[in-house]
Fold:
Amino acid sequence: MDALLRLLRRLRILIRRQRFSSELEEEMGFHREQLEKEFREDGVDPEEARYAARRRFGSELQLREQSHDVVAFRLETVLQDLRYAARQLRRNPGFAATAVLILALGIGATTAIFSVVNPILFQPLPYPHPGRVAMIWETHGDGVPLAVSFGTFFGLRERSRSFDAIAVEKPWQPTMTSAAEPERFNGQRVTPAYFRALGIVPVLGRDFQPSDDQFKGPNVVMLSDRLWRRRFGSDAAVLGRGVTLDGNLYTVIGVMPRSFENVLDPSAELWAPLQYNPSLPPDGREWGHHLRMIGRLLPGVRLQQAANEGGAILHIWAQTHAAGYRSSGGAPSGLLVHSLQDDITRDVRPALLAILGAVALVLLIACVNVTSLLLARGGQRRGEFAMRAALGASRSRLARQWVTESLLLAVVGGVCGMVVAELGVRALVALSPPGLPRLDAIRIDGAIFTFGMAMTTLIGLGCGLVPALHISRGNLHLGIGQSSLRTVRGHHTTRRTLVVAEVALALVLLVSAGLLLRSVQRIFAVALGFDPSHLLTMQVQEAGTHFQTDADRERIFEQALEAVKHVPGVTSAAFTSQLPLSGDFESYGMQFEAWPNDQFEPAFRYAVTPDYFATMRIPLLRGRLLDERDRAGAPVVVLISESLARRKFPGKDPIGQRVRIGPDIGHADRPWDVIVGVVGDVKQVSLAVTEPDAFYTTSTQWAWVDNVQSLVVRTPTDAASLAPAVRTAIWSVDKDQPIARVATMENLIAASESQRHFALVLFEAFALVALLLAATGIYGVLSGSVTERTREIGVRSALGASRNDILALVFRQGMMLAALGVVLGLLGAFAASRALITLLFGVSPLDPLTYAGVVALLLGVAAFACLRPARRAARIDPAMTLRAE
Amino acid sequence: MSEKPELMPGTLDMLILRTLARAPLHGYGIALAIRRLSDDVLTVEEGSLYPALQRLLLRGWVKAEWKLTETRRRARFYTLTTAGRRQLGIEMSEFERMIAAIGRVLQNA
Structure:
């Protein structure tokens, strides 16, 4: 400990060298002056007094140098230590390579994970005053965020005094047809203050103005830097030029800067004004919950304050706009105002933190392993160190030698680790679940490198300190010629403790991985409510102005469907307004005639073509399905989901009951719709979320024709291979019809669980590494112990111990360590599994099966690791060992 | 300074620690105290206090602090730490043992 403190003091002086020198000079000067004064007071003349004082004091220059020498690191000894360390490592390449490999993996994995997690969870968003950028949701009092309607946004923008700027956005996928090849882009429809809320101004041209956002207003568009470079050759003259999007001419008014990171929609390359109707017609899209709202808070306004103010405003606003809110499922009870950073990372935070924790455990195990290796080396090099001590090396010098060696190892490991990290980051980005925010900000930069190297230095110091302390604690002089039992024993206790720690840490990781594995198994076994096999899905958009009226739109979708049905291999096909597990999320209110005091709770709205149920294989439970009779003009009929039927009509027959849906709600002048059937519940949002309330109408009987619909196609063969033919069929009807998001239903399901799956893959990898390291730890300790106990074992067998006795002896020793580690690890796992709880599904964090399985696996591997040392021990020939004595 | 008796090697540290055991002092004060207490027999080359003080600081046996003297001059005062007090005890008993041993040799040889 003393040696360490001294090292730290030396370091402090090294850092503040200037100050050290000036202070020394000052106090020496003071001393000399006092001496001079003394001599003068004794009556010596001033000139003489100065000389006398100097004589009494001694050579100041020399003394100053001596003082510096006391506190300085002697560079040449540092170099000596380094050279010596390098030689030692070269002499034992197996040891060096193992240690470097373990460290490189540990440091590399940790750095890679950290570089992914850092921009998402720790770094502020790349906007001015990022803490003031907020995401705003409506909520129905259950704390669940709900996308806002334009009506709500409009009310807040008029009346709220909390925000500098407030805006809504929705995704937009226009097709650019001005060039030879039509190309589809991702973009956003935004209200004018969108960029101001983020705090970013265009690098070229102008920002949106309120005059751009009029209903049926001018078509203007802003470009991303990427699109500007790619399609317009970075030409500043692009401003004012026209581009054709979805058949309409748009004027380019601005270009966003290259550094602009659009965290709400990283793929967006085009922005145009939203241009909703400010008269807020109660039966239009102005009341649909499909917008995301952001705001820049005024300085000093807290998130909760803004939420409270907004809630109060909405309360009054809802009374004056009751009809609008009724059509979308009722007025919200309040607002949720989150910081944008928290909001976009909310979903991934638990998984990322869990992964960060897991990789920290792996790093810890790697360090423990390397420390254990160093200790083992210490045992082998006892003689060498004793010899150096006998030749006059001080203890601190020897301790420093250890630290130098482990630092050297760590630095080599760290540099290799950076390579591992670079590869790791690429793999992580490739593997990352869709929806991981700030993907573009993930890279190994200076900050990450510093993090990695700081970690490396700490590890080097930490790992070297343990053997170094052993050196200074043990009595070195006894080491020559004979081994000090005390040192050896201390050594072994430490190594055993390390192995126990390794086993415990590995168990924590294995249990976590096991729980995740069971969760993923459970979740994929969840009943979907439809048959996902052999289903092809894609999103089809009606391309802009060619088909202005609903009737035109309807015709084009109908023709496309007809064409698809004729593709060879297609059993059935249908359109739906939203597709389960695709990320679609759209609900509308329902009003039941039988429940006059109802709050018009929202349910998922599916506007489908009649074959939807046959294609998806959603079972009909009562009544009838939709069919060709249910066309526009005919009485509107509705199917509801099983859960909704059971909740609203317990013990009654829902068939024939009457409802109003969406925009019809509250309009006493409009006819009631009739429930004609009940179908099974379907998972819409995710496999884990149970929100089964849903209603179905035919596309033609819904209030409007959706211009984006999803196509589902069932085939007896491979669904993916059918995609080109289906696409061609749709384009045979209209070559400009954009098609997006082509995927088999099975892919969609996998993607919807990709986050859990991502965490699982990493945990499995980490757990495997931990298991291997723990096994090598046990193996190493037992091997060393067998070598050192050769004599004792020889004596035992000479005294009649059978081979089995010896085997059992060594086995017992190894398994004791493993068992102890398991017990400690179980305690750790109980705690760690609580942190995992948000990632688990259908499995208790204390799931006995997982714990039992993991313990069995770990003990099995431990037993395997004991096998070889035990066999070696059993083969020891007593005659040989006794003769060798 | 060759006319004065040289200090036995290693005793300077002990003398410094001993003078500091009474009260915190600056470097000049330590030199003065050693001179006075030894009736001017032990007059070290006074500057050699400073490398010794650095060594004691490094070992954590003394602490240093800038303060004002009675004459309002800035000076660096050294204080004995607990570890320093312990070290002083060790060195003193070691020293007494050695003196006794030397005395025995001188008397009995």
About this structure: The longest helix of chain B spans residues 82-108. Chain B touches chain A at residues 1, 26-28, 31, 43, 45-48, 50-51, 54-55, 57-60, 66, 73-76 (CB under 8 Å). Chain B has four helices and three strands. Helices of chain B lie at 11-22, 27-37, 49-59, 82-108.
